[in-house]
């Protein structure tokens, strides 16, 4: 399985960015696709996930109401629309796939394939 993340960049506070993660390979066994982020000196933080079986979406508290996760099954692509960005959203964003149970969908150790990360910087 290969994951290729793209769409990061520099944006002013209050602006928007759209991240994409293209997945290839044998992924029919996964339960979820998700986005995490990691800022320097901090642990990897759960952002959002899309569950394959129940088609529900899940969000971390810090991004609820601002970020939207979506999947394009025809293209095997996972997207993250980020609005109302804040300086504290600055981090490297990673997409991952795995087989977490729903109660563990926010745990990064439940995901076993990761993309290379894309830098998001929110600054004026």
Q: How would you characterize the overall build of this protein?
A:
The protein has 124 residues and is mostly beta strands. It contains no helices and eleven strands. The strands form two sheets. Strands 2, 4, 5, 6, 9, 10 and 11 form a seven-stranded mixed beta sheet that branches. Strands 1-3-8-7 form a four-stranded antiparallel beta sheet, with no helix packed on it. A hairpin with a 4-residue loop joins strand 7 (67-72) and strand 8 (77-82). It is globular and about 40 Å long. The mean pLDDT is 93.
Query: CA-to-CA gap between the ends?
Result: 37 Å
Overall shape: it is globular
Structural class comes to mainly beta
List the total number of helices.
0
Query: How much is the average pLDDT?
Result: 93
* Major sheet summary line: 7 strands, mixed
Into which percent range does the helicity of residues fall? under 10%
User: In terms of per-residue confidence, which ranges show pLDDT below 50 for 5 or more consecutive residues?
Assistant: none
SSE pattern, N- to C-terminal: EEEEEEEEEEE
Return Rg in Å: 13 Å
Q: How much of the sequence is in beta strands? A: over 45%
Total DSSP E strands: 11
Features:
about 120 residues, mainly beta, seven-stranded mixed β-sheet, four-stranded antiparallel β-sheet, 11 strands, globular
What topology does this entry show?
Layout lengths: L1 E5 L2 E3 L5 E8 L7 E7 L6 E7 L5 E3 L7 E6 L4 E6 L8 E8 L12 E4 L3 E5 L2
Parallel strand pairs: 2-11
Antiparallel strand pairs: 1-3, 3-8, 4-5, 4-9, 5-6, 7-8, 9-10, 9-11
């Amino acid at each position: 399985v290969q994951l290729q993340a793209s769409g990061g960049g520099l944006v002013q506070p209050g602006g928007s960015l759209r991240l994409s993660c293209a997945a290839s390979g044998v992924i029919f066994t996964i339960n979820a696709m998700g986005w995490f982020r990691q800022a320097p000196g901090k642990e990897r933080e759960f952002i959002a996930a899309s569950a394959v079986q129940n088609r529900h979406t899940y969000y971390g508290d810090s991004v609820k109401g601002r970020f939207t996760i979506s999947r394009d099954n025809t293209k095997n692509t996972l997207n993250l629309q980020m609005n109302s960005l804040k300086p504290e959203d600055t981090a490297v964003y990673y997409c991952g796939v795995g087989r977490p149970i729903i109660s563990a969908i926010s745990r990064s150790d439940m995901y076993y394939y990761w993309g290379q990360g894309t830098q998001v910087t929110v600054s004026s």
